[in-house]
Amino acid sequence: MTLLQVNNVSHRYKSRSFFKKESHSREVLSDISFSIEKGTCLGLLGTSGAGKSTLGKVILGLEQPEHGEVLFQGQNLYKADKKIHQQIRRDLQVVFQDSYSSVNPRLTAERIIAEPLENYESLTIAQQKKAVIELLERVGLSENDLKKYPHQFSGGQLQRINIARAIALKPKLIVLDEAVSSLDMVTQTLILELLQGLKEDFQLSYLFITHDIKAAYTISDRIGVLEKGKLVQQYDSKHEFFTSEHSAVKEMRSSILAEHPRFRSIGTKEKAYAHA
Ligand SMILES: Nc1ncnc2c1ncn2[C@@H]1O[C@H](COP(=O)(O)OP(=O)(O)O)[C@@H](O)[C@H]1O
Ligand SMILES: [Mg+2]
């Protein structure tokens, strides 16, 4: 079942220059079309400035595109009435890169995770606390963390809290915008494992936005490559992606192969990934 359908989306930011009369801003997204099936992860890979976050915002309903349409379960995101819009907002969540700035530093973990529940569910205080504890445990934290503040957590733990908040309303799609990019390798692996488990348990779909080819490869079922606002390639499988001769993919692949001695020591590059 197709959950998200993006049709011919183009976008440019309006120039806010005081001196220029007309806006001549360049196109940031150019005729982008793709879809995400229920329960799958689409990796969106591209270098900095490619337009990945803009596309994420367009999909989240935060940046209305100049052209094209975004359909969530068949409903046009930018034309939906209030009721449908509210439902879409429940079903569509986001986790950003910077775990610290994504949370209010003055709120405890309990309050942070409870926020979507307060907005959308009418639970009693006891029910809500129970739900928050279950969410904490599901992301690998515990009841002991309820009363802690953001500064008392590591970056990885805080990202777990952001994930708990994102899954609190049992959404259908989560946009993960560089969600593991600022974490060290070990923590990245653990968070990717957590995301993989949640995806299976809740039949979740992800749009996994990243500049990191290895992270994309680890978690994605399908991969799209965004280059200067254009979706230049779409791969329906990891194998198709890894063996691609497209220059952007080759470049990214060689950069990570050079980074990790482990990948250099094994005969074929593909073998290295098969066991990663
Ligand atoms: N709010 C904005 N106003 C104007 N230009 C923007 C804005 N946000 C991003 N851009 C520009 O759009 C391009 C794509 O940015 P972005 O979507 O953040 O790329 P990525 O996430 O792939 O690094 C960049 O050239 C960036 O400078
Ligand atoms: Mg970005």
Keywords:
276 residues; alpha/beta; Rossmann fold; 11 helices; 10 strands; 40% helix; binds adenosine-5'-diphosphate; nickel; nickel cation binding; AAA+_ATPase; transport
In short:
The chain has 276 residues and is an alpha/beta fold.
Regarding quaternary structure, what we see is: single chain
N/C terminus separation? 30 Å
Describe the sheet with the most strands: 6 strands, mixed
CATH 2nd-level architecture: 3-Layer(aba) Sandwich
SS-based class: alpha/beta
Number of strand elements: 10
What is the CATH topology descriptor?
Answer: Rossmann fold
Q: What small molecules does this complex bind?
A: adenosine-5'-diphosphate, magnesium ion
The residue ranges in which pLDDT falls below 50 over 5 or more consecutive positions are: 265-276
Give the averaged pLDDT, no decimals.
90
CATH homologous superfamily assignment: P-loop containing nucleotide triphosphate hydrolases
Helix content: 40-55%
Strand order of the largest sheet: 6-7-8-3-9-10
Q: Give me the strand/helix succession.
A: EEEHEEHEHHHEHEHEEHHHH
Number of self-contained structural domains? 1
Rg from Cα: 20 Å
Compute the number of helices: 11
Instruction: Tell me the name of the CATH class.
Output: Alpha Beta
